[in-house]
Write a structure and sequence with these properties.
The complex is a heterodimer of chains A (615) and B (158). Chain A has 26 helices and 17 strands. With 615 residues, chain A is α+β, with helices and mostly antiparallel strands. The chains are: A alpha+beta (615), B alpha+beta (158). At the A-B interface, helix 7 and strand 13 of A face helix 1 of B.
Chain lengths: 615, 158
């Protein structure tokens, strides 16, 4: 219950759209969204499939709590096999699209095959049909949303789409909805583009009913909202400062990767964080930050809406970028800023807007620019090759290379392949700050030991959202652990990874876990879905999901040696701050992590583990 | 004491908890499409504005109705649509200057905010205080208090 109970299956090759009942046994075992969508993927797609071949599938999945009044219940996940990493990909997004799709009466949509010409899927409650998208091909995300709303004569239509980057094969293209919310990572937009699928436009008026025990559910929802409101992070910090509150915090603990991880603290951090966004600009006296914004159902409202300085060099002749726009969020501000040594807040917001407008992941993009700047610094890449002088710290180079990448021009085509392929091509694969080919986010794995292990073992490659141990290691949630200490981290990482998988799969936002644990999720799941969803059951489901994802990757050919970090994090010690002298102690942690997981030395779940998890 | 829904758009984050609470109260489902309060999102400025019926004293919808399906709830002051009487002629939707009474295709009747009989679910659900249910005579009290605070707590007054 709380599931819609049916899914859409779209064959892009033949152009047919079918409705089929949701597999309720799988729904009970994997919840929804990330877990359930991944279950369908691993059952239906051979792990060795070429991610950009017609045989790969791509799934938009909501959770049982998506579209309900549970706080943050607006999430959906895009699941496919990643062209960036070759691993399973599941990218989560907020905004309003997920709830709208669920309110149309569907739990998920599975796309298979490949369309001969550009199409979009139109869903209006029970009506679901493929329509010609020739006129939308070559348009940005923002143009696509506007054109669809206009042609459908319905401003309330919600759109999930790709921009030019997804069409052009940028390997970390994102899927964007509601202008600036994105299923950002692992190139899910690239797969969408490879299938000639431009957009999914949805209008849902039926709503989400079928709540098992409405009274108990509403009581649990209200209690959950109260916990969020009274928590310092979710009730005060995030609404006021956004995720950008982290910039100074992470810099102070010496874990802000700078200049492609050459440094671990950024002298310009104060220029690009929450405080800078809220202070009047020197240039025009106005504040960068306009307001905060919530996604559907969210009572935290961490999102940022900003306005750029109209006279900044990036937009002085581009009036279309003068209005209020999404950003900056911490990860993007770090990747476009500290990772390249750029401290020009306005330039970061410009690059961030382009990432949303044409659909690319600012984390992988920014980190790749960091590698390009290091290669330039070393003399491996020249101005002639890149098209501009590209020293660390150059806002001009950042802005120029963002344009080149999203429009698929010049050296931008190589940047669009990601740091792993680019650094390998120029003979320095060690300079790719990535695991399994996906670039790291905004925390240094040397200064925060647990997050390094989380990067190395993440099922979608370098990622903070698969086990956000920062909560414990830096913020003290639920208990404070020492970021410099590696002892005890394998168990911590496992616990975070499993709980996160359960939250992701419920349809709620992982940011609730700054205040909530499974003890807050369980009563909401029980009220909505069934009494069996106790704390213990949710933890078990989370672990089951983790192992299912892992086994897909194992079948795809990944082994224990891929659970790794770049040489720099293992051998080049942090230079400054509290973590001075530290490298990541991965070799110490990995055997203990495998043991905690119940895996053999090759990183494969043992027969006993598989049995315990009913795999 | 009569109470009214009071909206402070500056506090709205666009979360739509109000729309879900409204539809759940009236239809038992979470369906923003069925909500009687709507939040408007103005992307170019970043402003979000909740909007619903203000329960006019001189209610044009009520006067326009040819079958007297709209009546005043004496306890709350709400103008309430009696579905059994409503014939779906939509004249009220033309009469209302604000657009806050609307036709519902599924029922063939119109719907509007009825203050949930005196305990509006939207105000209860709003996490930021953008929607409150307060004394009709003193909707300005909060603003007055803010300005009074500014005036009374100048450095010279300390």
């Amino acid at each position: 219950m709380a599931w819609a109970g049916k899914i859409l299956r779209v064959d892009l090759t033949t152009g047919t759209v079918k409705s089929e009942p949701l597999n309720m046994d799988w729904a009970r075992a994997y919840l929804g969204s990330r877990g359930l969508g991944s279950k369908y993927l691993v059952e239906e797609v051979d792990a060795k499939t070429d991610p950009l071949a017609a045989a790969n599938k791509i799934i938009w999945a909501t959770g049982p709590l998506t579209g309900t009044m549970a706080s943050t219940g607006g999430r959906y996940t895009v699941i496919t096999k990643s062209p960036l990493t070759g691993t399973i990909a599941c990218s989560n997004s907020g905004g309003y699209w997920g709830a709208e799709f669920k309110m149309a009466g569907w739990d998920m949509v599975i796309f298979e095959g490949k369309s001969a010409k550009p199409v979009y899927l139109y869903v209006n409650d029970d009506v679901a049909e493929l329509r010609d998208a020739s006129h939308l091909w070559g348009k940005s995300v923002w143009e696509t949303e506007e054109m669809l709303k206009k042609s459908l004569q319905d401003p309330l239509t919600r759109v999930s789409s790709i921009g030019k980057a997804g069409e052009n094969g940028v390997l970390y293209a994102s899927v964007v909805n509601d202008l600036h919310r994105a299923a950002g990572r692992s190139g899910v937009g690239t797969v969408m583009g490879s299938k000639n699928l431009k957009a999914i436009a949805v209008r849902g008026t039926k709503g989400v009913g079928n709540i098992r025990d409405p009274k108990a559910f509403m009581a649990a929802v209200k209690a959950g909202k109260k916990v969020l409101a009274e928590n310092g992070v979710t009730g005060t910090g995030l609404p006021a400062m956004g995720t950008q509150v982290l910039m100074s915090v992470i810099n102070e603990v010496g874990a802000l990767p700078t200049r492609n991880h050459r440094d671990n603290q950024f002298e310009g951090a104060k220029d690009i964080g929450a405080e800078a966004m809220a202070a009047p600009r020197k240039s025009d006296g106005k504040k960068h930050l306009v307001t905060n914004q919530a996604c559907f159902g969210c009572t935290i409202a961490c999102g940022r809406i900003s306005k750029m300085d109209e006279n900044h060099f990036t937009i002085v002749n581009k009036p279309q970028y003068r209005g209020a726009n999404g950003g900056l969020e911490y990860e993007a501000a770090w990747a476009l800023g500290a990772a390249n040594g750029v401290n020009d807040l306005e330039a970061l917001q410009y690059a961030n807007m382009l990432c949303n407008e044409e659909g690319i992941d600012p984390i992988s993009f920014g980190t790749t620019i960091g590698a390009v700047m290091e290669l330039y610094d070393m003399g491996v890449l020249t101005k002639e090759q890149i098209g501009i002088e590209a020293p660390f710290g150059s806002a001009q180079a950042l802005a120029f290379l963002t344009e080149e990448t999203i429009y698929g021009r010049g050296f931008g085509k190589e940047i669009g392949q990601g740091s792993k392929r680019l650094t390998a091509k120029y003979g320095h694969p060690d300079l790719s700050m990535s695991s399994k080919g996906q670039e790291f986010p905004a925390y240094d794995g040397r200064a925060i030991q647990g997050i390094g292990l989380a990067y190395a073992t993440s099922n979608r490659g370098g990622c903070h959202l698969r086990g956000y141990t920062i909560a414990s290691e830096v913020l003290g949630i639920p208990v404070k652990t020492d970021p410099l200490e590696h002892e005890g981290k394998p168990d911590l990482v496992k616990a975070f990874q499993d709980a996160t998988a359960a939250f992701d799969s419920s349809g709620l936002c992982i940011f609730t876990t700054f205040a909530w644990g499974l003890q807050d999720l369980a009563p909401q799941m029980q009220g909505a879905c069934g009494e069996q969803f106790t704390i213990e059951e949710l933890a078990l489901i989370g672990e089951r999901i983790w192992n299912m994802e892992r086994e897909f990757n194992n079948r795809a050919g990944f082994t224990a040696k891929d659970d790794s970090l770049p040489k720099r994090l293992l051998t080049e010690a942090c230079k400054t701050g509290p973590a001075k002298g530290k490298v990541n102690m991965l070799a110490e942690m990995m055997p203990k992590y495998y043991a905690a997981r119940g895996w053999d030395a090759e990183g494969r779940p043992t027969a006993e583990t598989r049995k315990r998890l009913s795999l | 004491m009569q109470k009214v829904l009071h909206i402070n758009a500056d506090k709205c984050t666009g979360c739509l908890q109000c729309e879900m609470a409204c539809s759940f109260e009236n239809y038992g489902t979470f369906a923003t499409a069925k909500s009687r309060i709507k939040v408007f999102d103005f992307h170019h400025t970043g402003k979000k504005v909740p909007y619903t019926c203000t329960q006019c004293d001189e209610a044009w919808c009520l006067h326009a109705c040819p079958v007297e399906a709209i009546t005043v709830d004496k306890a709350t002051g709400a103008k309430v649509v009696n579905e059994a009487t409503c014939v779906g002629c939509k004249v009220c939707t033309i009469a209302c200057p604000f657009g806050t009474i609307n036709y519902v295709e599924a029922t063939g009747k119109v719907q509007k905010c009825d203050l949930c009989g005196g305990e509006p679910a939207c105000a209860d659900a709003c996490p930021t205080g953008a929607i409150t249910f307060i004394d009709a005579n003193w909707t300005g009290l909060g603003k007055m208090a803010q300005w009074a605070d500014k005036l009374g707590n100048q450095p010279s007054a300390v």
